[in-house]
Every structure is written in structure tokens, then in C-alpha cells.
Amino acid sequence: MAEEKKIRVLMVCAMGMSSSLIETKTAVAAAKAGVPFELKAIETAEISRWNFAENPMDVVLVAPQVRFKKKSIEESAGPHGSIVLNIDTIAYGMVDGEKIFEQVMEAIRERDAGK
Fold first, then answer.
1. What pLDDT score was predicted for residue 4?
2. Where are the domains of the chain?
3. How far is residue 53 from each of residues 9, 29, 71, 97, 101, measured CA to CA in Å?
4. Mean per-residue pLDDT for 38-63?
């Protein structure tokens, strides 16, 4: 069987404070599920400089405090095949890596089912 492709996720947040905890807990959830997974958190200021053509992401997660950026992120990431999702507010607040990981996997399953 071919090696599974790593799921690449970019998380956009305000200052990167709580996101490091979420990054760790989501990576732990992915490891428990046996899913190759890479999550990178960046500040909103960095998203405008992100080159999705050169560095494509499967999913871009938008933290609750920066939801106002979702439309512009969709415009830059969408044409390169990225799914742009608002992070579940309760999961974010509770730093629930398992729930956030499941949110990512559900979006990918839905996308792949539509292909």
C-alpha cells in the first residue's frame, strides 16, 4: 500500500499565543489516529504573504478572533485547492485538539467524496 500523503494544515490566529497549545494537542490527536499530519500556526499579518502556489495547504483553519479574515483567505487559498474553515469556537476555547483534528478530517472526507 502506498504511503499516505501528509495532511498539511495552516492555522491563522491573532498573535500565536493559544495556537501553540492547539498545535500540540491537534498533532497528538492525529498521531493517535495514525494520520500523517502537519500543522503550522501563523499570525494574521503573515497570511497575506503566504504563497499558496509554492506552499499549498490542504486546510486553512481560521481562529475565532480572526474570522473577519476568512473571505480574503478563501480568495488567496481557495484557487490552490485549500479548504478554509472557521475553527469550532468551543473546541478552540477548550483547546480540544481532538475535536479540531476531527473537524479537519471531516472537511477532507467531504472534499474527497465530492471528487
1. 66
2. 7-113
3. 15, 28, 18, 28, 24
4. 93
Which residue matches cell numbers 497549545? 21
For the cut 60, the answer to whether the pLDDT of residue 6 exceeds it is: yes
The label of the residue with cell 485549500 reads: 82
Q: Which CATH number fits domain 7-113: 1.10.10.10, 3.10.129.10, 3.50.50.60, 3.40.50.2300?
A: 3.40.50.2300
Residue type (1 letter), 77: A
The whole-model pTM stands at: 0.92
CA dihedral 49, 77, 15, 102 (to 10 degrees): -150
Instruction: Tell me 64's DSSP state.
Output: G
Q: Which three cell numbers stand for residue 110?
A: 467531504
| Residue 106, C-alpha cell as written in the block | 471531516
Residue 38 confidence class, pLDDT cut points 50, 70, 90: very high
Which amino acid does the sequence have at 43?
E
Question: Cβ of 82: how many Cβ atoms within 10 Å?
Answer: 20
d(Cα 86, Cα 27) in Å, to the nearest integer? Answer: 18
